[in-house]
Amino acid sequence: MSALPDHARRRFLLGTGALGATALLAGCVSNTPPTQANPAPVAAGGDNVAPGPPVTIGFSAPAADHGWMAAMTTNARAQAELLPDVTFRPTEGSADVNQQIAQVETLINEKVDVLVILPADGKALTAVGRKAMDAGIPVVNIDRVFDSPEAYRVWIGGDNYGMGVNAANHIAAELGRRGVTNPVIAEIAGTDSLPLTQERSAGFRAGLAKHGLSVSRRVAAEFTVETGERQATNLLQAASRLDAVWNHDDDQGIGVLAAVESAGRNEFFLVGGAGSRPMMERIKAGGSVVQATVLYSPSMCSSAISLARLLGQSRGMSDLAEHEIPRSITTYSAVVTRDNVDQYLDVGFAS
């Protein structure tokens, strides 16, 4: 996947943003001197673009056996390369939890300044996260949250429930635009045993319910191309008519679309999940059942590296008045359609 410098600069930590600019403008035009009741504008983090003290960031993530997961590591590396004051120390990705724990322990023993950890299993890696924190090494926990808040300094991740809600809102609006009554709505979920899948499905049900709609048919794949194709085939065979489908994951969506094309079905529209570049390109081109995708962007990993840098330099975020990095940051699951796809192509990941 390509590096994302424009996104990193535009959307997150690097540079002065609208809030900071507004504060500066307010300070320039106000004729009222600062008082306790009317304090001067604050930008506690200072200029985050300016180089600071050198920081060594250790990074650990699972094996890149999935397009989204591969993009997480790619984004982390690309963001670190943009920062001249950062030394990036990644471990080799592994699907084995015990191996990931051992790799993190090695980084702790090497006394890196900050750790960025995307755990294969949040519960299993909680103890090693606490070990790092106890050793005075701040931990940036990405996406799969540790069991204890004592195991991390800041968490950054996606909004699985909100992802489901936004998918539902888009589907309801599109069905209304098309004048479809009594729609047959299907859901192709990810791995049902995972909390993230459960949260996405709960948000989808709640979002549809607000519009007086519900899921008519549901199958669960396992975030792979093979299971996506198999479960979509089962769904299409069981349902002679569909009006809308939400597929939780664009990687498994490759298999879903293979099943759709094999069955020759096009009477419905499909909304994807996560925001892969191939899905965005289909959306832009038109002529496909794919009409939208709901972001769960691996750009969060770029932001995690920027957060780690600021933690290592004891800086806050320049657009915020607080002197410290926030405790948690939840990314937003925007809906990407043909109308706005050009705005989001820079965060699309390879499937």
UniProtKB/TrEMBL annotation:
Belongs to the bacterial solute-binding protein 2 family. PROSITE patterns: TAT. Keywords: Signal. The lineage of its organism: Bacteria, Bacillati, Actinomycetota, Actinomycetes, Pseudonocardiales. This is Substrate-binding domain-containing protein. Residues 57-300 form the Periplasmic binding protein domain. It comes from Saccharopolyspora erythraea (Streptomyces erythraeus). The keyword Signal applies. It is found in: Cell envelope. PANTHER family: D-ALLOSE-BINDING PERIPLASMIC PROTEIN-RELATED.
